[in-house]
Amino acid sequence: MTQEFFDPAWVRSGEFDLSSDRRPTRTVRVRKALEELEGRSFSLVKLDRRGRTSTYYLREGKRPFVEAQYYMTLDRACRTLSLGVSIEKGHTHAGAERDRRMDKTWDWPHFMALGEGRLTQALSAITAALGRSVAVVAESHVPDAEEPTGERRDTVPFVFDGVRWTMRAAQVTPAVPMQYLSEISKRPDLWADVWIVADFTEQEIGALTPSAVARALFAFRSLRHAIRQYDPA
């Protein structure tokens, strides 16, 4: 059987173009390979734009936002494929919409309970498994009446190379990322997305099979299970 790889052209357009793919598509095969590795079933959820999308989530439940999800996304500006885990913080104020109001069933509190030590330990294992740095990217949605959408998005990236943490190329202590996330967590009016990912370049993407992508996602298993409070054994 002919081996199929991810397409470098996707990262140049910033979209997974699966319009000409035979069934099952390459992304479906990622899901199936991950299920074999995990021993769990996942839904493959995409942000759809007429059959083309920049982002896929793989999650177990039916509710969006609630759980820490496997995540793969394309960044056209940086020409990278990012693979890892996505987790969201919901609103906690009294006027929040019901499906966006965070409660104890969400994984965000479990994520925050990891603390700097367990997070750094988990990321150390991921960097060793993948042989590359891992980024923790926090994007908070800040209410702002002056913006057309009613909010602005503040994005702060932290990078861990297995030894050191950096924030915008400046070295920081391991406490800084969790301190920053704790400040976000205290704000009842803030929605926040956090992506914990490893980046693969345009040149690397063309050598990635669906099984290789699933194995890269699987490197984040112990972290995701710690957040989900599963026994990773």
For the CA atoms, what is the radius of gyration?
18 Å
N-to-C SSE string, H for helix and E for strand: HEHEEEEEHHEEEEHEHHH
Query: Could you please say which CATH topology applies here?
Result: BirA Bifunctional Protein, domain 2
Average pLDDT rating: 91
User: How many individual helices?
Assistant: 8
- CATH class (first level) name: Alpha Beta
Descriptive notes:
The chain is of the alpha+beta class and 233 residues long. The chain has one domain (8-228): BirA Bifunctional Protein, domain 2. 31% of the residues lie in helices and 29% in strands. The protein has helices at residues 8-13, 26-38, 108-113, 115-130, 175-185, 202-205, 210-218, 221-228; strands at residues 16-17, 43-46, 52-53, 55-59, 69-75, 80-89, 134-143, 151-160, 165-167, 170-172, 191-201. The relative contact order is 0.20.
Q: Which labels suit this protein?
A:
single chain; 233 residues; alpha+beta; BirA Bifunctional Protein, domain 2; nine-stranded antiparallel beta sheet; two-stranded antiparallel ribbon; 29% strand
What is the secondary structure topology, with strand pairs?
Blueprint: H1 8-13, E1 16-17, H2 26-38, E2 43-46, E3 52-53, E4 55-59, E5 69-75, E6 80-89, H3 108-113, H4 115-130, E7 134-143, E8 151-160, E9 165-167, E10 170-172, H5 175-185, E11 191-201, H6 202-205, H7 210-218, H8 221-228
Antiparallel strand pairs: 1-3, 2-4, 4-5, 5-6, 6-11, 7-8, 7-11, 8-9, 9-10
Helix pairs in contact: 2-7
